[in-house]
């Protein structure tokens, strides 16, 4: 089945925002075995939108449209939609209730502009938006289905995941499909590709597809099988994953099954701690609170996360975490000695099972010949032992922060698993 | 002058790569006053490419094409190009020399496949590629110019900057253009739209365009002017911005001039602190390190950021930050009393000019009738005074974290500016 994606909004055409919505929708459709044949971005102008609709009608069975559904004047997708389908806009009671409760919950008054959010083209099936106020719409023209969604990414994603994708699965006979993603950490894309070259070749012999999905701090390897019999596809993929596990055990830290919540290292570590009823505290200097924010982004983190410290200045490392002043004068703050003290002392301070200490040079400035930008020391401690490691990343500040945080989580994961 | 951008490649359509080329090209063209009216991504298939060319011909004077120029079999842009212009591919000596030296420099042999990189459609102007092996091409059909470039970002960018954009400037008389974006915080898109309705109407009377660009925690308002005289456009836009500032002074926290680095609240606050040689420390509970990570993501943060604490558990709030145990028993951790103590005590602990305290219920669990999910208390303190505020956000954990952090930065910004 062929699909296409239309993004509406001048902000895309002037390059002010990166169109991540199209990327995400394309990923979801591809994973379901739907063939995305075209993507386009058009202006907030009725003519441009109608032209895109006309062309989509000739090419695709499913047309996904994002953007142009807000309450303000530059948004005219809904009006264009109604004109295109030659129907009036009518007030939808269910949507009006949602919009109404959205505003009253926040102690705000419902204005006339807000009420208009509940207008939908007559005859459209409404896709409820529980994260915002603009509803989605599902309309049929000839043999083609047009699905209009808001451009706000988390509203669009919630609609897709909760309503639209299940509806498509229910209405159409799609090919069977099985995906599984292997999560690796501690090795780059090209080195990984060399290590697993033979294994990768054996995949295509079985009709399986492999995708490398690199991101700072990890490379995800997605193995996909398309065909008739799901059980058969699953067996093929799982067999290959077993071979891969035997090949690179030290780099694999988890698996992601498609359709489940994407797993990151922070989820894996949090689950390990929850299972064991253990707790964690963090003293992070160069990552500046990012590691704590990764962990606390997960609901329920408060059950295992005792707390964190961002001792950015040396004075704070000394006064709050008992790092001896002599360390700064001899080996410096970016050193084994410093992170060992941070990990041990933060653990004691918060009375947690484990403590993490991180100190490094995030960049872009602050590097020396001896200690270049990207140098990071990390330590994990429990009450009996402490393991420090040294890593060297590149010169991009944000990447160094992300990669150091991931490396710390992976060190903790290994620490937890090996000791028991 | 109207332009459009076509990206060729299945890797875009399956969502495997984010199409940053189009964003970058759109930015460059917009800055030159060229109006990008359409963007599309099509498959590596002759039919799809030809269809995109045909439509572009009707719409635009300049068509920028990226991708599909590599030496491997799935790349057929060049062949399609030659067919479309009804000319043969011919060997270009100058390109062949570049390709040849590219390989010999790297100690590699020139294969037949590599030699074919030097084939170009007869009659095309070649755009030399000094960063790689695939040349760019500039061809005219009817009144429209097609410019084909490789998909590798740094090869494409070098061609654009060094050759293509100067060539366009030399050949065409371009209009002037001026954009400026006003950054607002603390008000939603629809309430803002009502507040500034009259002002917005006066914009169109002057031929200016307004775009609302909402994101969690802020709404950006972009005002654009197109015309003959840049100074005139600039005056028009700046005059309107003055009226807007008078209309909603309490919500505006900054300005973004198009083409400059995008500004966020954390940049603005950091700059204020740097100018004043003042410092900041943070005790953040429900934001879990996110606020510290926003500030420390900026190079040079160490000059003003003394450090942070994430006292997630009440025990940590008490032991590390001196929050009286009686507070938890009476008004609870999400209270004015708690954040006032956090802000004051973190400031003292780190000996910084300002202290921020945050405590709230990020959700999705943990809410009660009296203290629902999304309730957040924030306080800012210096050595003389402390200002606490209470806010009520929604029920999405990540948004609550982002919005609370932005609100804290904005409270600090106002605190700093009003006291002097």
Remind me, CATH topology of the largest domain in chain A? Molybdenum Cofactor Biosythetic Enzyme, Chain A
Largest interface: A-B, 87 and 88 residues
Percent helix range of chain A: 40-55%
Label the overall shape of chain A.
Answer: globular
Distance between the termini of chain A: 50 Å
Low-confidence stretches of chain A: none
Describe what this molecule looks like in 3D.
The structure is a homodimer of 420-residue chains. Chain A has three domains: 2-171, 3-Layer(aba) Sandwich (Molybdenum Cofactor Biosythetic Enzyme, Chain A); 176-257, Alpha-Beta Plaits (2-Layer Sandwich), CATH 3.30.70; 265-418, CinA-like (Maf protein), CATH 3.90.950. With 420 residues, chain A is α/β, with parallel strands linked by helices. In chain A, a hairpin with an 8-residue loop joins β6 (125-127) and β7. In chain A, α2 (20-31) runs parallel beside α7 (153-171). In chain A, 42% of the residues lie in helices and 25% in strands. The longest helix of chain A is centred in the C-terminal third of the chain and has 22 residues, at 397-418. The radius of gyration of chain A is 26 Å and the shape is globular. In chain A, strands 2-1-3-8-7-6 form a six-stranded mixed β-sheet, with helices on both faces.
Please summarize what this structure is.
The structure is a homodimer of 420-residue chains. With 420 residues, chain A is of the alpha/beta class.
